[in-house]
Amino acid sequence: MHFVVIQETDWLTRGPHQQHHLFERLAARGHAVTVLDFEILWQAWPRSPLMVQRQEWRAVSRIVPGARVRLIRPATIHLWPICRPSSLATHALDLSRLIREGRPDAIVDYALSTGLAAQYLARRAGVPFVFHVIDALHTIVPSRLLQPIALAAEKRLLRLAERTVFINEGLREYAVGLGAPADRAVTIHTGVDLARIRPDLDGRAIRAQWGFGENDVVMLFMGWLYRFAGLFELLDQLPNAPPELKLLIVGDGEAYGDLQRAVGQRNLSGRVVLTGRQPYDTMPQYLASSDICLLPSQINEVTRHIVPVKIYEYLASGRPVVASQLPGVMRDVPEEEGVLYAAPGEHLRVASSLRDPERRRAIGARGRAFVEVHCDWERVTDEFEELLRAAAQRSE
Known about the structure:
By secondary structure, this protein is an alpha/beta fold. The strands form three sheets. It has an eight-stranded mixed beta sheet, sandwiched between helices. It contains 14 helices and 16 strands.
């Protein structure tokens, strides 16, 4: 089968997200996968060329060795404010060309703006259009002036998609409330690579690399560094926490520079390490280097319904997780299954209660058992593959 994936972020540098895990596995199973993406971190002319030509990669693989994903990045004009509108036109042209080359079995959308054009072209060509929802999309649009327009686009996509798929029940309820037909809305949870991330991996080399001692209790946060990720609040709490608690932040993002400055201003350089972006294939070792994993996000309209993939990766590593009381996460992962939920300002107090290694091992073991039952990527991919196959058969 041939699946076309539409997204409005960078396939090569962001994530890996849900779609990377699913579609690389589908490609490894023999399906043809074509992705149309957008260079989300583009730089305006003259810091980059004014006209960026269409680019194509024939065999992209970020997670699954041997997966051959075809990636197309349509041409754009790197000039504000016409970069995004120019990409809408070129995405539509490229998708039209793909449909003419050979009608895909399904178009799977993760985008708002380019998603609208994709939905129109799919309906015109009789191609099943599946809207896979991993965020409340209009809430992550940076401009508040554009959020009402984004909400209208989101409602249209939800209402007219042949199938809508959600990574948790909270998102499904949110979407049905916006008009997604309940009888076409299904939840397929996220997963984790249980063979790759294991409790028995050795993280001592990573600990030594970043200067952590044998008696340090290393608290790990990994992922994109949003300003609402709760890390500044952790820095505020850290001076009052037991001295053996150390913080390891692995990732890059909009808050990275400010976090570096905040560490210096608070004289925390001996207790906080920011590694910057690290290769994805080293993440199991970083997880193994930790004693406690953290998900300290602020609760807002962006985070209220999400269940980040990293929480399942944390649990798969056999480490206890201290997390904010995010409604979506709390609904999908009960507290007795490896997660301790902390009220705002209480994350390091809860982490302090985990200084006993035996208690950490007992809680971590429950988390590993939970993901082994519920979150195997192969089983999740089976479900998603069957949904796409059924959608394609109904359109024949």
